[in-house]
Amino acid sequence: MQTTSLFDAKTHLSRLVESLVSGEEDEVIISRHGKPVARLTALPHADVTKRIGLAAGRFKVPDDIDVDNPRIAKLFASGRATP
Q1: What are the extents of the domains in the chain?
Q2: DSSP helix, strand, coil percent of the chain (3-state; round to 5)
Q3: How far is it, in rounded angstroms, from Cα 22 to Cα 26?
Q4: Mean pLDDT for each 10-residue chunk of the chain (83 residues)?
Q5: By the number of CB atoms within 10 A of the CB, which of 16, 18, 52, 59 ranks highest?
C-alpha cells in the first residue's frame, strides 16, 4: 500500500494507475494535509471468455434464417430497394 499526497496524486495519476494495473500496488491512499482522505484501487478484470455463448438457449434460430440473404446482398450492391 502506497500513500501519496493529493498534489502528487494529481501530478502522477497515470503512474499511480499503472502501478495498480500492473499489480505493483494493491491500493494507493491519498492524503490531504497529512490525513488519509481517499483510497485508489484497481477494478477487477472482467473475464471476457464468459461472453461467448452468453445467450445460449435463450432464443431459437429459424431454419430459414438465410432465405433473404441474396435479396439483402442485392440491396447493398445496388443501393436501391427491390420488391
Answers
A1: 2-41
A2: 35, 20, 45
A3: 9
A4: 94 96 94 96 80 81 92 84 57
A5: 16
Helix or strand holding residue 3 (H, E): strand 2-5
Q: What is the pLDDT of residue 80?
A: 65
Amino acid letter at 5? S
Rounded Cα distance between 52 and 54, Å, is 5
Per the CB < 8 A criterion, the answer to whether 40 and 47 are in contact is no
Of 81, 7, 1, 77, which is closest to residue 39 (Cα–Cα)? 1
Distance CA 24, CA 2 (A): 10
Alpha-carbon gap, residue 47 to 12, rounded angstroms: 29
Could you identify the residue written with the cell 464468459? 50
pTM: 0.54
Cell numbers for 80:
436501391
CATH 3.90.1170.50 fits 2-41, yes or no: no
